[in-house]
Fold this sequence. Notes:
Layout: H1 8-16, H2 21-36, E1 39-51, H3 76-88, E2 93-98, H4 107-115, H5 121-135, E3 139-143, H6 149-155, E4 161-163, H7 188-200, E5 205-211, H8 217-234, E6 237-244, H9 261-275, E7 281-282, E8 301-305, H10 322-331, E9 335-339, H11 354-362
Parallel strand pairs: 1-2, 1-8, 1-9, 2-3, 3-4, 4-5, 5-6, 6-7
The protein binds iron/sulfur cluster (SF4).
Iron/sulfur cluster binds at residues 54, 56-58, 61, 63-64, 99-100, 183, 185.
Amino acid sequence: MPLPSPNPDLAVAFLTGGQLAGPLLAEASLLRDEGHGRTVTYSRKVFIPITTLCRDTCTYCTFVKPPGGGGEYLTPDDVLAIAQAGDEQECTEALLTLGDKPEEKWPQAREFLDEHDCATTLEYVAEMAELIREETRLFPHANPGIMDDDDIAMLRPTNVSMGLMLENISDRLTEPGMPHHNCPDKVPAVRVATIRSAGRQKVPFTSGILVGIGETPREVVDSLFALADLQREHGHIQEFIIQNFRAKANTRMRLSPEPEIPYFVRVVAAARWILGAEANIQVPPNLTEDFSVYLNAGINDWGGVSPVTIDWVNPEAPWPHLDTLEHVTASHGFELRPRLPVYPEFLTDEWIDPVLLSAAVNRATPDGYAAIPQPAPTP
Ligand code: SF4
């Protein structure tokens, strides 16, 4: 029997009452099949950490480094070398990830930007995206932290899509002792403003939640409903990432418990129920040993997987080999297909700058997925 329409109280009951998991998972799978059939996608990418400097200090983060301790910018040559390596391996996505506004904290960041004639780190990101677009066949997808209207307008002509995790809608996580304390870019209202601005400017956008950083089940549910509201406003959230927190050595949260997988599976299924059949719902496959469990919880995407670079945000967690990903996906009755960093339904001039659009259409199959040449058989 189908579940009733999503409502927050029932969603919390699903997350906290293990015995309710069966109907929730069944509904999530049904909705996924209705919206996406038996196709599960991934994006063949390279991860380009434009800068590991950041003005924030989230207590679970190992990506961020101080100057002199690994915190630095990639030069244009570094960026191009990674992008070209990805191009040779038929990658289609250049994921540009970085810390938030490091120039507002670190003189070294300001110095680097001055040397490169950029007023802000985001201006440097726009230049690097342009370099990648000109010199390779990759499509930049910037994940550069908080952006205002002008930043988004500046990045739109060179990025087929952009992203910013909501992480959680609760201000409580910014209070003293919580992971986002003293992190100006993690204030939920500021993140919502960026997501909304991307919607107004018709940018295919990636967002999502991070589960297990001290939030309650109610706050998880509130975050999913907040994303559903944002999607209703602008229809621009092309994918929702549901990511499980992993405790990392050398962070203040190294001893914090990680979400238990049965609980996290229910979160994923609740996301499908709340966000609906058409939503693209992604769980990274490198953060759970048996990642196949999410196929029964309504996902239809594995996110970016790289045959070339590590996951700089979770360096301890290698991505599965693409053959393994394909085998696991197929053994559960799904077809694995590569997609561009923009989903097929957003591959139109309403959503993408005309120059980028024609390049993207050229690298797409007739139904809008990524056309990846098969390697020639060995004689
Ligand atoms: S999670 Fe992002 S915003 Fe927080 S410290 Fe790390 S790089 Fe900075």
